[in-house]
Amino acid sequence: MSDTDEHVEEDRTVEEPQERDPQERELAAWRGARRRLSRAAKEPTVGELLASLTTPDPDEPADVYGDGVVARLEERVAELLGTEAAAYFPSGTMAQQVALRCWAGRTGNPVVALHPMSHPERWEGGALTTVAGLRTVHPTDESRQPTADEVRELPEPFGTLMVELPLRDPGFLLPSWEELCALVEAARERDAVVHFDGARLWETTVHFGRPLAEIAGLADSVYVSFYKSLGGLSGAVLAGSASLVAEARQWRLRYGGRVFRQFPQALSALAGLERELPKLPSYVEHAKVVAAALGDGFGASAVPWFRINPEVPQTHQFQVWLPYGAEALTEAAVRQAEETGTCLFRRWWPDGPPGMSMTELTITEEALSWTAPDVHKAVADYVAFLTEAGAQA
């Protein structure tokens, strides 16, 4: 065989196409969509996140172990929540463990009353027991906030009542203002302190009809997050009395949370307080418009059953449930984004009985331009992709 023949033979060699990673495909579809109903935390690139960091004084010395811009963030949050002091933590998991551990020491009771679907019980690997040495009891097992009577009737003493506002896993649920006040009063009657898991407390003002400081003022301590509603990079703050926060800082050191430099997180949190916090009420109100339109759209479609949970959103986040497999629902969402340029839903998760799946929607600025007819059209297109994929109810 000549050199020429060898060259021709090499040219005929075709590499087998590599199967694309499903998550990469999904992310490309979400990013490439011309219109999106909600945002996803994984969408921004490193460059976009870096470009979002701004400072009023670029010549300010960088923070060292929590001074400078980090201290300014703490002061700003304490002012917003009406507390004496606040301490920055690299994660909400750490902030809450520290808060509950401090209260256990102060009350002399290591028992924490909280909902079984709250974050420490479901998403922290049993840290309250394993790391902090605490024990939990549940006022209710139902998918709703506990009632004052259930707190009063707990059969054993507890040192702290932890209330997640909103309670995410059952559908971002909130009590009424009167119910919340009664819940706090019931804990006081049991000689317990009250801690708010306020990771998403920022958007509760519309539902409660009260400012942040009045809501936070019901509790003895409050934790708030910066990336869940405000679009920050990461991080959290624990707010409360000056003495509690001073003690929490010592526990933060013991937990490894006293980080050398945190100015990127602090700058993004301050930007979120400046840019996103004032807009949250408009997001909450528009979530009600979108949820109603989704209900109308699915009601007019061929799907045999659906649920918007809650039917009227109490924050700017809510759930959508459909009786199909999660893979089929996610595939239909990807195809809709790829082929129409419209991103209505993203990833779905199997939840509840077999064949039932759920997704969460977060309504932010991108969704404000969506009218009810826009949502109806997007739902009809989505159901068509779902039907084309042969999804089984």
From TrEMBL:
Keyword check for Nucleotidyltransferase: no
Swiss-Prot/TrEMBL cofactor(s): pyridoxal 5'-phosphate
Cited Gene3D superfamilies: Aspartate Aminotransferase, domain 1 (3.90.1150.10), Type I PLP-dependent aspartate aminotransferase-like (Major domain) (3.40.640.10)
Aromatic amino acid beta-eliminating lyase/threonine aldolase domain mapped to chain residues: 64-294
Chain segments carrying region Disordered: 1-26
Source organism, top-level taxon: Bacteria
Comp. bias (Basic and acidic residues): 9-26
Glycosyltransferase recorded as keyword: no
SUPFAM superfamilies hit by this protein: PLP-dependent transferases (SSF53383)
Record key words, sorted: Pyridoxal phosphate
Family: Belongs to the threonine aldolase family.
PANTHER family xrefs: L-THREONINE ALDOLASE, L-THREONINE ALDOLASE-RELATED
Protein name: Threonine aldolase
